[in-house]
Amino acid sequence: MKLEREALRHYLDSSFKGEMKSAVWEVLGDDIEDMSVDLNPDTEQKTNILGKTKVTDKGYEPSMSADPYYADPSKKIYPKIREIAMDRLKGDKCKTLMLEVIVEDTSAAKHLAYVQEVLVKPQSYGGDTEGVGFPFNVLEDGARTKGYVTSESLKTDSPVFAEGAIE
């Protein structure tokens, strides 16, 4: 049985403090019909004069686009997205944490999760008659930690991340 798209959730820490203990998670997805992490693999293929092909694998440069993202003052993440765009913030002022959770078995007590340091970069603002838009990209920028969240914490929409393997 295939997983429904809602099984993969992406949260951003709206506090922008970059600390797990003070993270205030908000799930992304309102108004978004299609959102994927683009892995952007960095590989180079060369064929030498002997006719042998060699591939150099330099890893990944993952990014994700939250588009559309409409201004909604009731959302915890909105004031920071607006501030980054309108004040033209850069560097560490755009850095936060992203939590990715994949729910493969809805009856399980714990679900696979990763926390990643990221940069949040709005791409534009304004838009059409649908509303004021602030579409943004999320770019990996630091450590990635594997762990899990409990199903109970997901039910309250306040996921609690723990580092380590699911036991």
What keyword list fits this structure?
Pnp Oxidase, Chain A, 167 residues, mainly beta, single chain
Note down, in words, how this protein is organized:
This protein is mainly β. It has one domain: Pnp Oxidase, Chain A (Roll). It has two helices and ten strands. The chain has helices at residues 78-86, 151-155, and strands at 8-13, 25-27, 37-38, 41-47, 53-60, 63-66, 95-102, 110-122, 136-150, 161-163. A hairpin with a 7-residue loop joins strand 7 and strand 8 (110-122). The longest helix has 9 residues, at 78-86. The radius of gyration is 18 Å and the shape is globular. The two termini are 24 Å apart. The mean pLDDT is 94.
CATH topology name = Pnp Oxidase, Chain A
Measure the end-to-end span: 24 Å
Rg estimate, integer Å? 18 Å
Helix content: under 10%
What is the count of helical runs? Answer: 2
Beta percentage is 35-45%
Query: Mean pLDDT, rounded to whole units?
Result: 94
Uncertain runs are none
Secondary-structure element order, as H and E? EEEEEEHEEEHE
CATH architecture: Roll
User: How many runs of DSSP E, i.e. beta strands?
Assistant: 10
Main β-sheet description: 8 strands, antiparallel
CATH hierarchy, class: Mainly Beta
The structure class reads mainly beta
Number of domains: 1
Compact description:
The protein is mainly β. It has helices at 78-86, 151-155, and strands at 8-13, 25-27, 37-38, 41-47, 53-60, 63-66, 95-102, 110-122, 136-150, 161-163.
Tell me the layout of helices and strands.
Layout: E1 8-13, E2 25-27, E3 37-38, E4 41-47, E5 53-60, E6 63-66, H1 78-86, E7 95-102, E8 110-122, E9 136-150, H2 151-155, E10 161-163
Antiparallel strand pairs: 1-2, 1-7, 3-6, 4-5, 6-9, 7-8, 8-9, 9-10
